[in-house]
Amino acid sequence: MKKKLRLRLAKLHEHVANKRKDFNEKLSSKLIKDNDIIIIETLSMKDMAKFRKWEERKDSNDKNNHGKSVNDLGWCYFVNRLKTKAEEQSKIVIEANKWFASSKTCNICGYVNKDLTISDRSWICPRCGTEHQRDENAAINLKNVALNIFTEGSSGSAAARRNGNHLQ
Prior knowledge:
The chain is mainly α. The protein is built from 5 helices and 5 strands.
């Protein structure tokens, strides 16, 4: 009986892994097909898992915390597939430094909100009064970083930062 259960569990794990791989392959292919330049944040899954565990203890009623499950997302595999496909198709993947405060920086005036926490989904810039949605603001800041690289001129600095080299 135990052997049967172990085999069944192994098949379920394999099924989930195959689903994740299929999703990552399809998403990376679509992103590369639809875009010439992609900028992504360098995320530390290990740190995110630690933070989520702390958040769960802090507020056990919040069902949006996922603890270790962030490690199950296959982020590293996805980023590797994205870089490989970009290289094969002469596209560009830029990784922003993980310490770049994309969510905390006002995309209008550049003010950095050091008091912003992960649970704050929106905030108002005290300098210019702009209201920001956290993820939208981060996306605009990352886009601006990529645009700045390519408007610096042809000094070679943009080429030095492509496909896996980190931005400061």
